[in-house]
Every structure is written in structure tokens, then in C-alpha cells.
Amino acid sequence: MVYKCAHCKQTVEIDKDLQGIRCPFCGHRILVKERPTNIKRVPAQ
Amino acid sequence: MKLEILELKDRKAKFVLSEVTPAFANSLRRAMISDVPKMAIDYVDIYDNTSVLFDEMLSLRLGLIPLKTNADMYRFPAECECKGAGCALCQVSLTLSAEGPCVVHSRDLKSSDPETVPVDQNIPIVELKTGQKVVLTAVARLGNGKEHAKFQPVCASGYKNVPVISIGEKCDMCKMCIDACPRGVFKADKGKLVVTDLYKCSLCKHCIEACDTGAITLDTDNEAFIFTVETDGSYTAHDIIDSAMKSLKGRADQLSEIMSAF
After folding, report:
1. Boundaries of every domain in chain B
2. Residue B47 near residue B135 (C-beta atoms within 8 A)
3. Model-level ipTM above the cut of 0.85
4. pLDDT tens-digit profile of B129-145?
């Protein structure tokens, strides 16, 4: 799963077993999930 | 059956329907709410949404935008040749693409059918800040009010009984009722108390409370109804009443056809 670092905005691939939730570039611990590129169908009701 | 039109505008109608039963009046009211088909956005395909609103909230807002409807041009998806898969005969797509800073309005929705467009152009949908973006395609279809409130073509559809006000001989012209009536129904004319506009009366009974002699009696006519219809603009008020009556007639014809088989 690809995330984005909230601090350095780098694309990060996380490995929960080895390093946990942490940006390998800046060490920041807040990562945000990017919106997927597929089309989302939402009912209007 | 008698019909007296009191007011007829594009979006509002007021009329008196008399010599009908309460059941018939209620059937007409219900038919206007739930039997007249209307176009509304059914689902939204979201390509990008970086606005502050969630996708679901955005599509809910889009669903409630009234669209101008020409029901003769479209079919219900279940009755269409495509069997609900979606084609030009049963669906209209509206695209929206906007980037901030701006306020996205209903006029920004670009329809594939120039006749099926938002009724009001200035309905705000979402405010976008710099860099925020919304790209989507909304699909509208015909539906009726039984399914969802967004398919109701009327904002208000109701009726009340026509009041019957009688002024007895006990009236001593104290004029207390004239002051008490919030709608200004009464006036003194040549030393007599008269009713100026009967249809204005809201049956509040303030006049009866104010009258010490008990000269005023208030009743309702159970076979005459004052209807008020307000549309959301998808149809004119005239067209809604007409469609509702056709729907009732269609049902009666259908029942008659079934009965004729026995």
C-alpha cells in the first residue's frame, strides 16, 4: 500500500513488520492515504 | 366537479376544487406528490474530489438539485429497451469539472441534453480553495416521489376545507371580531358585518372567541377544498396538476379494464 508523508510529501511504501508506521526519508510518523485513481460510483441518496 | 382558479403562476397555483369527496381531494394531493415522474441525479461517478466535502455529501447535494423535466422524452429505466443498463432514452449525464479558488454552482453542471438542466442556476454546491478540484459525471434518470423525495416535483402540495362563516342576527356590531381576525376576513359595511374574503380564513376561531353574543358560527364545507401547489421548477404548476389528473385517470382506466374481463 502506497502512502504519502504528511511532512515531506514523499511517496512512501510502508512495511508494518520491519519499521512500522514511519517515513524512511524524514522519520515523520503521520502518513496519509492517497486517493486511488479508479472511478468511485456514489448513489445520490 | 367545479374548479375555480385563484392564482396560477409558473411555480405556484391556488385553486378551489368543489363538489368532490375528501378521498378524491386527497388522491389528487398524493398523485401530485408521488405519481408525477421527475428527472433527478441517481448516481455520481467521481473521478477526483479534493474538496472539503466527502464524496457521499457531494453526491447527496447533487441529487437534490431540481432538473427541468420533459417526461415525454424519457422512459423509466425499468421500462426502457436497455432494461435499465442505461441509454440515451432513459438517462442524461451531467459533467462537472472545477478547480479552486471558486464556488461551484449548479450552472457549472454541463448536461448532455440541453433541455435537462438545473432549474436554478445559482445553487451553491461546494466552495473550493486554491488547488482543490472536483471532477465528476452525474447520471440523472426518471423516477417518482414514492422512491425518493428528490423525485417529488412539488415542494408543497396541500389543501384545506373551504370555511363556512355565518353571522347571526345576535350580532350587535361591537366590531371585536374585526380586530381579532388575524387575516382580516371581516369588515363593517353599511352598519352590517360582512365577510370580505372567505378563502383567507384559516379556521383559527379567534372571531368566535371575541364574539360575546355568540353571533358567529364557523364550519367547513366537506365537499370543497382550497388547494395550494408549489413546484420546485421542474414543471410548471399547471403541468403538475394535469399530469396528476392523467395519472389518476390512467389508474381508473386500468381498473376498469381488469374488471371488464370478469
Report:
1. 2-34+156-228, 38-144
2. yes
3. no
4. 999 999 999 999 999 99
